[in-house]
Write a structure and sequence with these properties.
single chain, alpha+beta, 10-stranded mixed sheet, 12 helices
Length: about 350
């Protein structure tokens, strides 16, 4: 099943250009004229994150949303990542490279059409990867039960367990990218255990993973994200998905909104939330990012598109809020000297992962 992604600009309604050939499910609309200036923030060297450090992703499989700030948790505090990690590489072999990003909200909404709850989770974690892991979103969502999903996705229990289709709308604000560069060299103790990994010796792989980790954090992006989930009855969802993204019968945002995504059309308008969980931002989204009609008030992320003042205020409120909006784990097994050893390492690691997926 292919994923569907629609990008819509923040400016007033304009025709949607035809997608490029290499991305036939992607539609782009430019929103801002000229270049956005970055906002000031603390020096990038002040941001401390464990990029380049190792973690056993199986030990914490399904629970990374507790230790990596990716959803609006109540204990917002000042932490970004509090997952226990291990420094297994020599300091001079690998280094962090920090690059300031725009510190402005992107000029497009990311809009994903999700056939079911599983796809909704997958696309919320669209920019999160883990080498060798088939469904990396489950590293974060595997432990989620209905009350947790209700809280983070802002929808009711009844809607989550209905035959609804979902439309995820996200607006990303990237502030800082942290990458690891260099050729990783294991410290002596870890290298000795690594050297003992042999094809056919399952225990050698398990011992290494348990003592030193299965993956290391290769890169991440810190910033914030504002998002909303709309739930549509199945016939309405199928019609919207077909007309907008498959047949491309509709190319104007106003028409898409009025005919498919308006608050009075959808089954449920989820709460508009910020990944950082900042209380001031949450209050602003609840009180200001709403559509008011004569008889009803609806949460609506698209109000940001209609009113530039809302976007300006949101930029100011999220000046220093932080969440992880992208993260990539790399398999330590990729450092093994032969393709056969790498394949065997991944085979054992993937078997362990499959067991966790079944039992969680």
């Amino acid at each position: 099943m292919f994923s569907l992604l629609l990008l819509l600009g923040l400016a007033t309604s304009s025709p949607l250009p035809r997608p490029r050939a290499q991305a036939n499910n992607l539609v782009l609309v430019q929103a801002r004229e000229g270049h956005s200036l970055a906002q000031s923030r603390q020096d990038v060297e002040d941001v401390q994150v464990p990029a380049g450090e190792a973690v056993d992703i199986f030990y914490r499989y399904g629970f990374f949303s507790l230790s990596v700030r990716v959803v609006p948790r109540d204990d917002h505090g000042s932490w970004i990542i509090r997952e226990p990690t291990t420094k297994i590489f020599t300091p001079d072999s690998i280094r962090q490279v920090k690059t300031r990003q725009s510190s402005k909200f992107d000029s497009q909404f990311q809009i994903y059409f999700c056939d079911d709850l599983s796809e909704l989770m997958k696309h919320y974690f669209h920019d999160f990867t883990a080498e060798g892991v088939r469904e990396p979103h489950r590293l974060y969502t595997g432990s989620w039960r209905t009350p947790t999903i209700v809280k983070y996705f802002g929808l009711s229990d009844d809607t989550l367990h209905s035959d609804s289709g979902f439309v995820l709308v996200k607006l990303i604000k990237p502030r800082l990218e942290v990458k690891t560069e260099g050729v990783p060299v294991l410290k002596s103790a870890a290298q000795s255990a690594f050297n003992r990994i042999q094809v056919g010796d399952e225990k050698s792989v398990k011992d290494f993973v348990e003592n030193y980790g299965s993956h290391y954090i290769r890169s991440l992006v810190i910033g914030d994200a504002v998002y909303q989930i709309l739930a549509l009855d199945r016939p309405s969802y199928n019609r919207a998905k077909n007309d907008v993204l498959i047949e491309k019968k509709v190319s104007d945002f106003t028409e898409i909104y009025d005919n498919y995504l308006a608050p009075w059309i959808v089954r449920e308008n989820g709460r508009v939330q910020a990944a950082s969980g900042d209380s001031r931002v949450a209050e602003f989204l609840d009180e200001r990012v709403v559509m008011r009609t004569q008889f009803n008030t609806y949460p609506s992320i698209f109000e940001i598109r209609k009113d530039e003042r809302l976007l300006a205020e949101l930029e100011s409120l999220t000046r220093s809020t932080e969440a992880v909006v992208a993260l990539a784990f790399r398999s330590i097994g990729a450092l093994l000297p032969s393709v056969q050893a790498q394949d065997y390492y991944n085979e054992i690691v993937n078997t362990i992962l499959a067991l966790w997926e079944v039992n969680i």
